[in-house]
Each structure stands twice: as C-alpha cells, then as structure tokens.
Amino acid sequence: MNKKEVAELKRLFHPDRTPVTRICGCYVDAEKNKKATMKQAFLSLPEEEMFKYFDIFKKTLSGTIGRNLLDMEFPLAQEAGGGAQEYLLKLRNSQLKEEALLDEFYDKIIESFLYPENYYIVLIHCAYDIPKKGTDNLEMFDASEDVYEFLLCSICPVHLSKPGLCYHEETNTISERIRDWFVEPPIMGFLFPAFTDRNTDIHGLLYYSKNPDELNADFARQLLGCELPLSAGSQKDTFNTLVAETLSDSCTYETVKNIHASLNELLEEHKDDPNPVLLDKGDVKRLLESSGADEETLEHFDEDFEQTSGSAQAELYVSNVANTRKFEIKTPNISISVKPECADLIETRVIDGRLCFIIPVDDSVEVNGIPVKTGVQAES
After folding, report:
1. In which band, very low, low, confident or very high, does the pLDDT at 208 lie, cut at 50, 70 and 90?
2. Where are the alpha helices (DSSP H) in the chain?
3. C or N terminus of the chain, fewer CB within 10 Å?
4. Biggest alpha carbon distance in the chain?
C-alpha cells in the first residue's frame, strides 16, 4: 500500500461517509482476563462516541509507511487450509456476527500480545464502495464497481486517570477529581486485507505500531502468521554497518557526507511519489560503488548484505536510513548537528598532526542563548 491509499481509507472515518458496519470490543485487564465485551451496529452509537472511535481508527492508519505502517504478505503456508489468512477471511466474511469467532479472536490476541497493563481491543467490519477515478484523477462516486470489505483492529492501552482537583459546577466547589479508566490512542493494530492498487488484496495486510522500534514480532507471527520486516532502527543499523564494513579505510567524512547527500537527493526527487523509496541489495551496492568502493572491496558484498539484513531480498526504506532533518557528527565528547543542506560548511583539516573539523563563524553566535563576540567582530 502507498500513502495515497492509506489517506483514502482514513478519509472514510466521518459520519457522512463511514463504511463501518459493525464494531466489537474487548476490555482486558493486566492479568489477561476479559473484563467486558461489546458488539453492535456502528451507526447505532451516539455521534459523540462515534467521533472518539473515528480518532482511534485514524490513528491506526497513521505514521510513515516503512516505519509505523508495514506492508506484510502471508507466507504460502499461511494461505493454505488452517492458516492465518483463512481464519482472518472467515472473520471478515462473518461481518463480526459470530460470537465464537470473536471469542477465538480475542483469545488469540490475549495469548500473543505481551502487555503488562490493561488494554482495549477494538475490531470493526467495513464495506467501502470504491469510486472510480476519471482521467483527471477525481473520484466518481456514482461509478463504483468494486466493494472493499475489510477489518481494522486497534489495540489501545487503558490507564487510570491521574489524581487531581477539579471544579464541580453543581456545588460550585473545588474538590478531588474522580479517577476513571481512560482509553488511550492505539499502540498496535492491523488492516486486513490490504488495499493495494485501490482494491482488495487478500495476500497481504497493513500492520501498525506506534513505536517503530517495538514491532512485537511474536504478536505478528502468532496472530497474523507473518514475519515482520526489519524495524526502522534495524534498517538504519544495517545500512550503517554495510557502509562502514564495506568501505572500511575508505569510509571517510567526505564519503559518508556524499552518501547521505545522494540519499536526500533521491528522497527529494520522489517527494511527490505516493510509493516509498526503497533500496534493494543492488541499489546499496551501486551506491557504495559510486562512493569509492572498488571491485575487490565489494567481492563479498552479497553475502555481507544477506548476513547483515537477514535476507538477500531485504529492502531498506530510504526514509529510514537517511536523515532529512539534520546531519550529525559525534565524538566521545562533542556533537555537531547542522541542517543537511549546510553539511558542506563543515570542513576537515589536519592541524598539528590531528584531524580537525573546521566550522566557519560569522558575526552571529550565541552560547547558551547569550550573544557572544567573535574574533571577526574584535578585528573590525
């Protein structure tokens, strides 16, 4: 799925065009006990309550693709009889009306989702009449041919509100606030089936994690039958390791600066493309070649890539390995951070036998927020 397809689904969560037919929920305590369940037609909810749920649904489809939102495909074994795909299709096709299937679904989550506190499982069934798009890319709502029927699951932490004082209008007094259990935005969830090329894709799903470095691989494997790709942090570590170990002695400041300049240029070129920019094994190899790695250095690159990333077919999201916000230099005692487009202002020079970073200074310098005089000002 790409960001345009995700955005199209998020726009559906509004009272005037909601595709939600049914909503189910299960409140689970820290001891993994089902404390309460609910099941009803979504449009029967009070409007104010509907808006609260819309916020939850939108959050489950929020974040960056490749970071918080991960495309996952079912292994062939999971598409066979008795696999996770078959179970999810059965759940979807039931339109969440079969009590036994719902109980089984909740049990699967409780068994596989490791979370030490209370949480609320929200599951909805939706049916979206997909409007055609004309040559001008505008939606034609009266020309719908396909229906995208899907499930969206959101797992939300439930915490006790903080103690404090509040004003009671009835008695016109200030007194202790009543503490209650508050449902927070989701930390985990999934969309099934995927909405690929604006249509149903039963071979995949979209996985959501609020924290991109805590993807909960066991949960994805046990409940959904899918293996998670590398997390955003792991992708960055993989890329950094490949660059450092492949270039070795050639891995200089200038080389790394040029590599990241190339990555940022790539992102800029594709900024209007709804699909994320990916680097496969060949792309990384070519990037290293253009950065000074010779044939001998790259002799074992294919094996190194597979060993470091975990798969010869692994793909790295450029947005995960590049930093468009800052260019950072770190030593054990000093950190230097500049905007990527200003990286050329920092030079390296050998002074008295030591490699030094040279930063040009103008007449506008602050130290801990205090304007200071520079040598340039003193000379003038």
Report:
1. very high
2. 3-10, 47-59, 84-93, 99-112, 217-219, 232-247, 253-269, 281-290, 301-309, 318-321, 375-379
3. C
4. 83
